[in-house]
């Protein structure tokens, strides 16, 4: 009886320590975002004084109103949403299609093609050859430069293929006996069963597309109509941390912006605007994200 009570006490102590540790990790993780959120809702003039931690000292919506007066922000937001939606749909479909082909045991070039994809994970042509390739393909100042280069990802292909390999192959054999062809098997059997891993890959691609700004800087910086939200965020952050914020902001977008909003409030507000959409999507995909990464690694 005493040993059992001692074991229960140890379990309670361990669980308490574990809960406290996870709470501490959660606080450390969430505090930076919460602090930025508090600053974004604080009056710009009051923010200059500093000392904003958990709650805005002088609550206001003016920071967000001023941010949406920025010349290129609406266009940048539209382009970011468009590239994220199109890039995610095409990327998921292409990754699933290639993964299905590589998972087929009767595919003759399966090993050779898999090795070719593996090599792309370790080696790349580099920045300059990539730039020259985009130029020769006439993708400079073109919206499709956001979509086509990343439409096939070796990492996503192997994630999906690993999941397909964990599915019972007898399902495909039974479908063939019933007269189903490869396309029917892929569309009606494989894709529905792969919904967890496809949601996982969709999250990977969507986050990458939404957060990308360097391709805009390389290929589309000369065309304002093709700018993206993260690229505009990068410009504002670079300008507001450079020193003379008024002159820099006047060159980067709306010159009146710097006279009404402090640089720190600009950084906080536009960071929230750029981060919030992808944070709202993640909870709906979280359960699929966990299933996609765990079930695909188990074979029956």
Topology:
Layout: H1 2-40, H2 44-47, H3 62-67, H4 73-103, H5 110-122, H6 127-136, H7 154-165, H8 170-177, H9 182-193, H10 195-211, H11 214-219, H12 229-240, H13 245-252, H14 257-260, H15 263-294
Give a written overview of the molecule.
The chain has a domain at 73-223 and 279-297: MetI-like (MetI-like fold, Orthogonal Bundle). It is built from 15 helices and no strands. The chain has helices at 2-40, 44-47, 62-67, 73-103, 110-122, 127-136, 154-165, 170-177, 182-193, 195-211, 214-219, 229-240, 245-252, 257-260, 263-294. Helix 4 crosses helix 7. The relative contact order is 0.13. It is a multi-pass membrane protein. It is found in: Cell membrane. This is Carbohydrate ABC transporter permease.
